[in-house]
Amino acid sequence: MYIIVDDMSDTVNDIDRRIAARVKHEREGRGLSLAQLAESSGVSKAMISRIERSEVSATAALLGRLSGAFGLTVSDLLSADEGGNAKLRRRAEQQHWKDPATGFTRTALSPAAARRLQLVQGELPPRARIAYPAASYGFFTQQIWVMAGQLVFHEGATRHVLEAGDCLELSEPRDCKFENASAKTPCRYLVALSL
User: Fold this and answer.
1) CB–CB of 24/52 below 8 Å?
2) pTM (2 d.p.)
């Protein structure tokens, strides 16, 4: 289980180690060299190497690029190889992750057995933004439902301003950006991914 990152270095190191092991496992399992993964993801060889050695904390944007190159969701990349057929995930068991660059928090809500539909809650702090490449969205359908605050969602050249209660289904894969333009209020939203 992941816990939200705070100032405790042991927590950060544990999460970084788990992400490092998963990235390395996925890369090696596909028979990819660092250079090949760098080319397909747009993340430098040096950065991938540093992530795999737990020398840096991967940001949401980097995880988006790597997950797209692997053909995985970010949730898949962040999760441990849980296996099992658990159809219930209690609140205390939900996986939390915090982006070290933006303060964005991501909670994987779905049970371990959920394969075709994944629910993820995001909270974007005031003035935060995260960009993901089109490759991150090429293999699933996604809807975003804003629970609180306002989300400015850039889908390619199209800009959507979503208020609490609004729901948007993404169209064909394009570079996307999640943005909270508010100076004071966090934005909380739910993402439904259908594989």
Assistant:
1) yes
2) 0.81
How far apart are the C-alpha atoms of 94 and 71, rounded to whole Å? 23
Q: Give per-residue pLDDT as tens, 15-28.
A: 788 889 999 999 99
Assigned token pair, 124? 């974007």
Domains in the chain, please, with CATH? 9-78 (1.10.260.40), 91-194 (2.60.120.10)
Residue pointed to by tokens 């809500």: 109
User: Distance between CA 120 and CA 143 in Å, rounded?
Assistant: 11
Using CA of residue 84, residue 86, residue 87, residue 93, what is the dihedral sign? negative
> pLDDT tens-digit profile of 152-162?
999 999 999 99
Of the pLDDT bands very low, low, confident and very high (cuts 50, 70, 90), residue 80 is low
Token digits of residue 73? 């969701």
